[in-house]
Amino acid sequence: MAQLDTREKLEILADAAKYDASCASSGTAKRNSKDGKGLGSTEGMGICHAYAPDGRCISLLKILLTNSCIFDCHYCINRKSSNVRRARFTAKEVVDLTIAFYKRNYIEGLFLSSGIIASSNYTMEQMVEVARSLREDHHFRGYIHLKTIPDADPELVHQAGLYADRLSINVELPTAGGLKRLAPEKDGVRIETAMSEVKASIVDGKDAKAKYKSAPRYAPAGQSTQMIVGADAATDGDIVKKASTLYDRFGLRRVYYSAFSPIPDASAVLPLQRPPLMREHRLYQSDWLMRFYEFQPHEVVAAADDATGMLPLDIDPKLAWALKFRGSFPVDVNRAPREMLLRVPGLGVKAVNGILASRRWRRLHLADVARLTVSVAKLRPFIIAEDWRPVVLSDTADLRPLIAPKPRPKQMEMFA
């Protein structure tokens, strides 16, 4: 490998990290250095690199330790057989960069991932050393997210959780068949075993912290994972079921979805075109339905097309479910329970909370509901209010053209 200066390494390894979607910092324990002790904070202003799930702008130094790898996963641009320019940071270089960027108010924390350098254990040791040095040598109190390696020794992964706010282990693909076909060197069972061990450590850490104030925190922001969408034949239904299983079994904070992007010198087993980015967006929406709107996985899957198993791209999954199960509507906003109000297209969690609070004091009219949402037009066919009953809309055979958003003009590609 040719000798590169730090700026050249940063250019290569920051660009190589762009395929990792799971870099949000929501849920971390709040720390600051206002008392004059230590360095860094999980809060503050800086250049925005990502958005947290709760809407906060966060800034992270997001890099790979190296883009060299001994694995040859078909979908990865940094795979062993890929013809890309390689670079590698030492642990000290990553630490120095993080501190330098933080002191310039560029970042609030570090997101560190890596290819496999010599072995899983060696690579994991280097990543742990970065986090250890930041915390112990420099008293860094900002956010640290480590992308751990499932094949590494469990003790190394455990050490990572003692220094990092969040750990993530990628399941890569939603089906075992897809993983075996596109990443034959990775073991799905081992990946899930590592995720289970991290979950157990998080639970043990919380129990110890409840009993002893001096107990160390273990990955206080939990663990997350990422799935590639569109690289294999998995349907949206398959992906939703997999995500639900991961949430239930491993207590994940987030499942991230990354639309497959064609790469240079791609393997012949990969699709030639990337999936629509709207597909990734619809999967995130379905994820929110399960996490915040009390939808069960089978209900979200039911919103998909029966023949293809794909969620519609022109309307959101909640509206698709409502149109498919019109027998559940209209819902009386003055009498319906919370779980049914959450199923009304156009009503968010805050709007539902507002309805429940307001109706304790008076009967709600359509105008009252309209003040709680962006557009009442989407709501009309699905609700009953004191002065509103959708008689004509309820009898309309094909409701979709009346309430579906108008398609946006397709943007032409500059270099098509």
From TrEMBL:
SMART domains: Elp3 (SM00729). Residues 59-286 form the Elp3/MiaA/NifB-like radical SAM core domain. NCBIfam families: rSAM_link_UDG. Gene3D superfamilies: Aldolase class I. PANTHER family: ENDONUCLEASE/EXONUCLEASE/PHOSPHATASE FAMILY DOMAIN-CONTAINING PROTEIN 1, TYPE II SECRETION SYSTEM PROTEIN K. InterPro entries: Aldolase_TIM, DNA_rSAM_put, Elp3/MiaA/NifB-like_rSAM, Endo/Exo/Phosphatase_dom_1, rSAM, rSAM_sf, RuvA_2-like. GO terms for molecular function: catalytic activity; iron-sulfur cluster binding; metal ion binding. This is Putative DNA modification/repair radical SAM protein. Keywords: Iron, Iron-sulfur, Metal-binding, S-adenosyl-L-methionine. Its cofactor is [4Fe-4S] cluster. Pfam families: Fer4_12.
